[in-house]
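R.M. (postdoc): so does anyone remember the format we settled on? I'll just put the structure tokens first.
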């Protein structure tokens, strides 16, 4: 019988990035590495508590970050081969509600969020530096980026990847303070 895989939190966080990993990939793995243990310490009841009517609970925020990872995963891969950065949007509130993150097991959400973002860091590393740095004058990051960029300014995929990490850190601060 084969040895069982080590699925401990330490093991999930241990895989190093390549030495030439871009800064935003390192920021992402560091943010996830700091946040995952703290998130798992949040009690079940607290993870489903909404701070105010119409606001997301920690479960829903992490669910939103899973949705963001899913959408940006596809964006990063597709945009690496394109000369524009015109990205599709999605109805964030509907996605969160329709997937019932509020009812999902908290540890399961955190582990999915953790592993998906570790994968996204590897996607960032796998994207060539030329594709990340290519100037794209056509984009809609004035509508889709966390930190919007005017349409009259060219952007790079590198900027969009870094913006993804900024968005993640913003939401982690909402949950963890």
């Amino acid at each position: 019988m084969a040895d069982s895989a080590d699925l401990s939190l330490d093991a999930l966080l241990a895989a190093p990035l390549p030495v030439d990993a871009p800064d935003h990939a390192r920021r992402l793995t560091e943010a996830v590495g700091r946040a995952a243990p703290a998130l798992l310490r949040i009690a079940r009841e607290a993870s489903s508590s909404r701070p105010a009517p119409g606001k997301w609970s920690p479960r829903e925020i992490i669910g939103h970050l899973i949705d963001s990872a899913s959408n940006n995963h596809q964006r990063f891969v597709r945009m690496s081969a394109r000369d524009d950065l015109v990205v599709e949007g999605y109805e964030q509130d509907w996605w969160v509600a329709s997937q019932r993150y509020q009812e999902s097991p908290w540890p399961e959400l955190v582990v999915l969020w953790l592993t998906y973002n570790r994968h996204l860091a590897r996607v960032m590393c796998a994207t060539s530096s030329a594709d990340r740095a290519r100037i794209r004058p056509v984009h809609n990051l004035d509508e889709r980026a966390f930190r919007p960029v005017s349409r009259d300014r060219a952007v790079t995929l590198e900027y969009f990847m870094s913006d993804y990490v900024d968005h993640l850190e913003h939401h982690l601060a909402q949950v963890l303070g």
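R.M.: ...and that's the designed sequence above, right after the tokens. Also worth knowing: The mean pLDDT is 95. The first helix runs from residue 9 to 14.
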